[in-house]
Amino acid sequence: MTGEASVYLFFAVVLLFITPFFIIRGIKKGQSLTDQFTSNAILVILFFVSVGEVLKTMWDEGKMEQFNQFLFIGFILVGAVPALILFVYHFPKEMEKMKDPKQYKHPLAYRFRYFLLVILFAFLGGALFMLYQSYKVVF
Q1: What does the DSSP assignment read for the chain?
Q2: What pTM did the predictor assign?
Q3: What residue ranges are annotated as transmembrane (predicted)?
Q4: Euclidean distance between CA atoms 119 and 35, whole angstroms
C-alpha cells in the first residue's frame, strides 16, 4: 500500500466513526430529515470514495470497474434521488415564499427572483447533465 492509499485509509476510518456521530447528534438536536440529509450525505459519499481509492491499490481493474458501478448506483440511490425528491417537496413552499416581498432581506433580490430561479434551474440541469456523463463513463 502506497503512502497516498494509507492517507485515504486513515480518512475512511475517521469517516466511519465520525459520520454516525454527526447523525446521532442531529437526531438528538431534533433536526429534520432534510437537514440530516443535507448535512451528512456528503460524508457517506466521501467514505465510499476513500474506500475506493484504497481498494484501487489492491484490486485489479475488473473488480474496480464493478466497484465503481456499485458506487455510482449507490450514489444515485443515496444522493441524487433523495435530493431530487426533497427539491420537488420543498419547491411549492419556496414558490409561495418568493411571492412575498417581506421574505427577502434585500429588495433587489425580490425584483430579480425569477432570474435567480432560472439560475437555480440552470445549475440543476448542469448537475443532471454531469450525472449523465458520469453514467456514460462508468457503464
Answers
A1: --HHHHHHHHHHHHHHHHHHHHHHHHHHHT--HHHHHHHHHHHHHHHHHHHHHHHHHHS-HHHHHHHHHHHHHHHIIIIIHHHHHHHHHHHHHHHHHHT-GGG-SSHHHHHTHHHHHHHHHHHHHHHHHHHHHHHHHH-
A2: 0.62
A3: 6-25, 37-55, 67-91, 112-132
A4: 23
94 to each of 23, 35, 91, 112, how far by Cα in Å?
Answer: 26, 16, 5, 15
Query: Which position has the grid cell 447523525?
Result: 23
Domain chopping of the chain, boundaries: 1-58, 80-139
